[in-house]
């Protein structure tokens, strides 16, 4: 107990000494500033002006960043809304009309010899054609409800026929559904299938070139580009 009291007394005395020396230092500083005011005030004014300018600059920068962020968010929302307006027209198509429409998009982007199967039993080749560089393009079209996801079974069937049966260089699975299941997308990535879900299809409809969509492969991963090959004549 005595030792504890001694330590408390020492700490209290130390704080008092520090307070006294702090007061003395502050008094000396005030006296020095008063005696050298003609030299001090320009420095104080300069420091204050720099602080004001710096604060104003920082505020303007933050305001600019917020404005840019809001503008980008607005543009993204407008693009998404425009895609959905176009996709509403696509949703109104029958599955046969959808296949024909996908073929028209291919022709728009420079594909050659584009043919629509338009029948069952086509072994997944709803649309067949050639890209501008000669690679054979085979497309499976699935006209699904906007909220639906493409299951793994659909992807498995296409994987089994796209290259073995149709000798595709680029195999494209395009759907009006909003996404692929995890298993379906994983299979597409492993087997180099271009998985084009609703958002990417919307971009294609709005004018994005097919060649720019192929590397995205459904989720921004994988190449999906196939090999370069010229068709035999």
How would you portray this structure in words?
With 233 residues, the protein is α/β, with parallel strands linked by helices. The protein is built from 7 helices and 7 strands; from the N terminus they run H-H-H-E-E-E-E-H-E-E-H-E-H-H. The strands form 2 sheets. The protein has a 5-stranded mixed β-sheet, sandwiched between helices. Strands 4-6 form a two-stranded parallel ribbon. The termini are far apart. The relative contact order is 0.09.
Strand order within the widest beta sheet? 1-2-3-5-7
What is the percentage of strand-forming residues? 5-15%
Order of helices and strands: HHHEEEEHEEHEHH
Low-confidence stretches: 218-233
What is the overall shape?
elongated
- Computed structural class: alpha/beta
Main pleated sheet: 5 strands, mixed
* Total number of helices: 7
Overall number of strands: 7
Helix content: 55-70%
User: Cα distance, first to last residue?
Assistant: 104 Å
Q: Overall pLDDT, averaged?
A: 80
Radius of gyration: 35 Å
């Amino acid at each position: 107990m005595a030792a504890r009291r001694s330590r408390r007394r020492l700490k209290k005395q130390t704080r008092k000494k520090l307070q006294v020396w702090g007061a003395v230092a502050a008094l000396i500083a005030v006296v020095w500033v008063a005696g050298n005011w003609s030299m001090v005030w320009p420095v104080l004014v300069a420091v204050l002006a720099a602080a004001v300018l710096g604060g104003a600059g920082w505020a303007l920068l933050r305001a600019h960043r917020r404005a840019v962020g809001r503008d980008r968010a607005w543009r993204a929302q407008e693009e998404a809304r425009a895609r959905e307006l176009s996709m509403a027209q696509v949703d109104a198509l029958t599955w046969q009309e959808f296949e024909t429409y996908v073929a028209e998009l291919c022709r728009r982007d420079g594909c050659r010899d584009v043919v629509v199967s338009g029948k069952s039993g086509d072994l997944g080749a709803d649309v067949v054609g050639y890209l501008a560089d000669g690679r054979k393009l085979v497309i499976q079209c699935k006209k699904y409800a906007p909220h639906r996801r493409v299951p793994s079974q659909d992807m498995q069937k296409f994987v089994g026929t796209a290259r073995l049966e149709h000798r595709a260089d680029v195999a494209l699975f395009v759907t009006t559904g909003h996404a692929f299941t995890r298993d379906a997308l994983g299979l597409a990535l492993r087997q180099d299938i271009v998985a084009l879900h609703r958002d990417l299809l919307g971009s294609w409809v709005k004018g994005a070139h097919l060649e720019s969509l192929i590397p995205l492969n459904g989720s921004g991963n994988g190449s999906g580009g196939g090999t370069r090959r010229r068709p035999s004549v």
